[in-house]
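Listing S7. Sequence submitted for prediction.
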Amino acid sequence: MGRRIRRWVLGVLKALAIAYPLSLLGVCLLFSYVGERWWVTGIALYLPRVGFALPLLLLIPGLAFARLFRLLALQLVSLWLLLFPLMGLTLSFPSSPAPGQPALRVLSYNVNSANGGMAETLAEVTAFAPDIACLVELPDSRFEEARQALLPKYPHIWTQGEFLVASRLPISSHETPPRIPYFGKLRSPRFMKLVIETPLGPVAFFLVHTVSPRGGFYELRGHGLRREIASGRLLRGDNAESFQSHSALRGLQMEEMSQLAKRETLPVVILGDTNLPVGSRTRRLYLDDFQDGFRQAGSGFGATFPSKWPWMRIDLVLASDALRFTDFRVGQGRASDHRCVVADLVKVK
């Protein structure tokens, strides 16, 4: 009996050791090619990816104890899939501009309506001394307060909707894209375009804040998460329509922005809160043609939300091929529920 149990345990262990990396690969493919089109993978995109590491806590000691060293080595593949495609680990490093080469520093910060205090919020901005700072989700009632505080260092300030741009450099033009038709209604595109005269020449900036998934999550919770699970409504996806609607609108907003940015003849910088986590299908479809500042010049996971224990990298700075990232940093402040992102750029010669 003991030998039969041991053989059964070893068989299960071997099966799990092979199934685990295959499952991680399957999750990566589902995120990238199904993603927001199915509510199950859409929800999973926004969950902490560290949960996918839990099987390793059993597999590694189990395989080592059973002396199954080849299958133990296979878990290096699992670890790579977990850290890089799923969690977005990046091992890039900053570089320096050539001597005398003009550079530009930009900052993007979802300030969460400055609920953490305007002084604390702006202290995070000015600590990095950016040439151009884009504040996202700033309500009209706080614009004047922010403007007065920033004017001494940023003589060019532009505001519209939820965006505020504070710039040391002249803003030569701005453009509000038309509203997007969506199921018989006109919806906000949730992005703006500015042209700013920089040391790199005129640059087209696209400020982005796509529709949040929060409303869809609230609908899925219904009368409470436990009740929805117990009743089976959550598993059937009875309340998934709102979540899918938010995801589809987010995709449409990104498609509109990306098409306009790709047609732009000037160098392009895209920055803001995309609400698109690592591995998102929407992110792959509409943003992969642009350089990701963190992947080019950052290191680590670069998570920006939530600020206390971040696990999602949804606040981005992207650029067209006419520019090159030399440095990328993520702020550590908690005045907002997001962390700010800061990028240094130069022009490609």
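Caption to Listing S7: primary sequence and predicted structure tokens for the chain studied. The radius of gyration is 23 Å. The chain has a mean pLDDT of 91.
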